[in-house]
Amino acid sequence: MGKIAFLFPGQGSQTVGMGKTLAETDQTAKSYFDKADEKLNFSLSNLIFEGPQEELTLTTNAQPALLTTSIAVLEYFKQFGIKPDFVAGHSLGEYTALVAAGAISFEDGVYAVRKRGEYMEEAVPNGEGTMAAVLGLDRDTLRTVTEKVTDEGDSVQLANLNCPGQIVISGSRKGVEIASVKAKEAGAKRVMPLVVSGPFHSELMKPAAEKFKGRLEEIEVKNAEIPVIANVTADEITLAEEIKEKLIEQLYSPVLWEDSVQKMISLGVDTFIEIGPGKVLSGLVKKIDKSVRIFAVSDQETCTAVIESLKEEIQ
Predict the structure, then answer these.
(1) 266 classed as catalytic
(2) Are residues 98 and 222 in the same domain?
(3) Would you say residue 31 has pLDDT above 60?
(4) Which of 13, 45, 70, 91 does the annotation list as catalytic?
(5) CB 264: neighbour CB atoms within 10 A?
(6) Total domains in the fold of the chain
């Protein structure tokens, strides 16, 4: 049998009602929603379970909501005895992965991503920065496009290298608009503007990184008990100091998701389990390598299905 990796979703996977049935039927899962409410001093759980969606989608709410729900699902799933050899998360999901790996406590994780969301929102005035998904263009060609636009005075960078033929660019509104046109001229099949509140994972997030650095000093970061594949390098990290460093860099650096999945496969992973709301990462892994096994766990029903599929391995 090959190795197992747990994957944790990022912002965009949030939906009203996520984790609700799990919290209503499993006391351990419910306790994480309660802990989040207590740590943040407001009813995050009510917002998660009842909405409204517009409020849940705000970066400052979506980030702690997704971390809380994903960890609640993880804690329920863990009782069946499946353990990962590696963990990884997409952007915000990297914090969930670090909680799963024992590098950050759950309470510190919820606090950290709440502050991270605040600083990301504050870094660039609303409407001045944006992001767009570019389909059907290789990274080198797109990087050449973005570097030329940036050199000419309108900041734009590669932000999420998700899978072959799917790259998100991020930067000033004008920079993204110009790069979108030039990407099509260079052969992109399609460019889709994203509905986001800021230019995440771009150079414009450096002010947020500076502020967040101070907050990160307030929480205890330990060596990870399970290797975490870092977004910034697509490599294994376990040491506390390196984890802190990469979390700061992550705010303004590209998420190397395709490279991260390829790295785990090269390390012997043949089974990926996405834990938390949605199936975004499962879809990306399929596009990266069709030969691996992919599962998604978000509630009791999906958990039962995964356990049934993997029962021989866990006996």
Answers:
(1) no
(2) yes
(3) yes
(4) 91
(5) 27
(6) 2
